[in-house]
Every structure is written in structure tokens, then in C-alpha cells.
Amino acid sequence: MARKYFGTDGIRGLTNTSPMTAEMAMKVGMAAGHRFLRGNHKHRVVIGKDTRLSGYMMETALVAGFTSVGMDVVLVGPMPTPAVALLTKSMRADLGVMISASHNPYHDNGIKLFGPDGYKLSDEQEEEIEALIDSDLCQVLAEPAKLGRSRKLEDARGRYIHFAKSTFPPHLRLDGLKIALDCANGAAYNVAPSVFWELGAEVEVLGVSPNGFNINDKVGSTAPQALAAKVVETGAHIGIALDGDADRLIIVDEKGRVVDGDQLMGLITDSWAKAGRLKGNGLVATVMSNLGLERHLERQGLHMLRTRVGDRYVLEAMRAQGYNVGGEQSGHIILSDYATTGDGIIAALQVLACIVEEGRATSEVTRVFEPYPQLLQNVRFNGGQPLENAEVKSVVAAVEQRLNGRGRLVIRKSGTEPLIRVMAEADDEILVKEAVQEVCEAVKTHA
User: Fold this and answer.
1) Does 90 qualify as catalytic in the annotation?
2) Which residues contact 435 (CB under 8 A, 6 or more apart)?
3) Which fold, 374-445?
């Protein structure tokens, strides 16, 4: 059954345009709240948000929805997505909500839901909530005496900072390291600097002055150029870039060069394998991860399990098959020994641990493998089915035949935007460019 409102990462869209309206947020609160009423205890939901202006509106509407069906609400304010997942589980809450559109610009927003175990909801649970949203929600309203209450958790930041630091090896410190830290003017602006400073680092910050409009605006993991300039300007040993809700990580080395999630996953996997900590004898990544990473793991006697794009699918595979490292090239890195979702700060701490222990420059430590030439292009379409067109299929088949044995072609629809994403990689850069160009032209013709 296709989901109507939920995409690969919750409900997301342009603010004040369906489905991202205050009315929808209230319905989500009512429907999800009712779905997770279980037993006779006083039910509770934890709600966090990032720094975009519309967060106030969405938060208020969600509070109205949850309290109307009898759930108490705990507000934690601007906090990273993984912090909301952590607090949901540690507070024995019945549900967690993060109001965020992640790396999208300020005018978008989204709603991510976590179950009482701190994990994102399954497709089946989201489908149940969707059915309730489209039903007569007046039937689930609580009696006046059983309405919920709302309160703010004053020490939420301190709880998460303490937890994040506890994931760093206790015998190590960050003394002597200068870190340039980009918080994307997002959810981690008031916690991430403290984590690294309290562990001993000198921290140079940018993207820590949110105003409701500047989240992810020329800063953060999707725009690392500002961080690269900051690293070179300040002579930092490393740059750390988070996205708007701090569940993804991109590193910049001391030379100002960007290091993507594939290299970071390779580094952590190698480190944990040597330490006897790695579970599953490999890692879980998506179809977008570079073939060079897969070949590198094979040389180490390890392997890569690929899933479709979306950190939720990576995590599902990790849980089902017993892996403790997984993630995406974009920087979503899931370390399930510590977190139930991607956590940019915790992943950064594992990278820093490798740098401190090896005593070498970031550029040396994080260059784990030589990537295959890879190219990704997006084609916008207008609601049709261009990938089902016979001519497009013919072009795709011909390109796949040329790549056979030398590389891969991955074509998929975006889960959050009306885009067809075309990616190719191979041992020959010219072949890669030609492959992507041919497929994109065919898709454009029938978009």
C-alpha cells in the first residue's frame, strides 16, 4: 500500500502548503497520539524542532493535537533529531516527534515520528496513522478530564551533551585540536559547540546564529564551502559540518577538502573491525555509496550490504541482520551501539577518536579508499512516469550493457522532491559522464 503523506523521512513539504499545514500537524498529533495510546499509564510525547520560523506554528499545532487525545507533551525546543530519539526512549515516552525538514531551506518543514524504542516508525505504523488522519478524528478526542498537559524540559540540552560525550573513548581527549564547526544555523547550534569544547578542543564556530530564515543557507553539510574557507583561514585541523537537524555529517580536512560519508563509514568500519567491535563483518550502505568503498571493504575481508536510499532502510537492514555501522554517502551515519538514528555529532566523535589515536593529519586518516568516478544529476519531472516509458527503458538498458563489469547505473525517484536522480559510476570518467548524459536526456524528453 502506497503511503499518502509520509515519504522516506516523515512528512515534508512547503510550509502552509498541503501537507505541511498547521491543520495537518494537529491531525498528525491526534492520529499518532491515538495510535500510541497503550495501557492505563499517563501517556507522553517528546517534541523537538530545528530553528526554522515555521517550527513555532507546527509545534503549537502538534501540542493541540496530542493534548486533545489525552497525551502529555514534553517540549525540548531546538535539538538534534537524534537527541529527540534519545530522550523519547530514556524518558519512557510513548512517542517522539522532530519538527524539521533536515537539509532543506527554511520555507520547508517536516514531521518525523519515533516510537517508544527511539526508532523511526515502520511503513505499516505510518500507514495506520495516515488512515486515522483521513478518518473522523472527532471520534478519538479525550474526555475533558483526560486532556493532556504541556511542559518544557529545561535540562534537555545538558542531557544530550552528557550522552554525546559518553560515546567518546574515555582515555582520549581533544586537547591540541582546533576544530572548525558548522552547525548550519540549525538544531545543533546550542549543543554541538559544547560537546567538542568540553572534550578539550579549541572550537571555531559558524552557522550558530539562527534567525528563522538562515537554516542551511550557504552553510552546513550540503554547502561545505564556507566551512572549507574557515578551516583554511583559521588553520584548523579539521572541519565538521552538520545539517539542519544534525543527523548527518560531512568532514573537511586541514587542506579544505571535503570528505563524504562513504570515506567516514570506511574509516569507522576499519577502526571498529581492528578493535573487534564491528558486528556483521561489514557495513550497511545504500545503492548510492561508491563502488570504491565496496572494493576497499572486500580487500579487508569485509563486505557491504546495500539498501535503497533512505537512512530508515539502512537501519532496518542493520537491525534485521545484526550490523552496528551503516549510513549514506550524504553523511547519515548510524552507529547503533550508541544511537537509534543517524547522529552527526556522535559520528564526528568517532572520526576524531581515529585522528587522535593515529596522531596523523585529517587528510591522511580520512582518505580510506580511492573512489571510482561517480556522477549524480537530477531531472525535474511533472508528475508523470518517465521511467516507465519504452524509449527511456531502451536507453537505460543500453547504458547498463556498456557499464556491465565496469560500474553501475542507479536511477530513482526522490522521496522528497519531484526529481529523477540519475547516478553512474565506473572505472572510466568519460564513460560515466556519457552514461548519465544519455539517461538524463532520455528522461527529460519524456518528463
Assistant:
1) no
2) 399, 402, 403, 407, 409, 424, 426
3) TATA-Binding Protein (3.30.310)
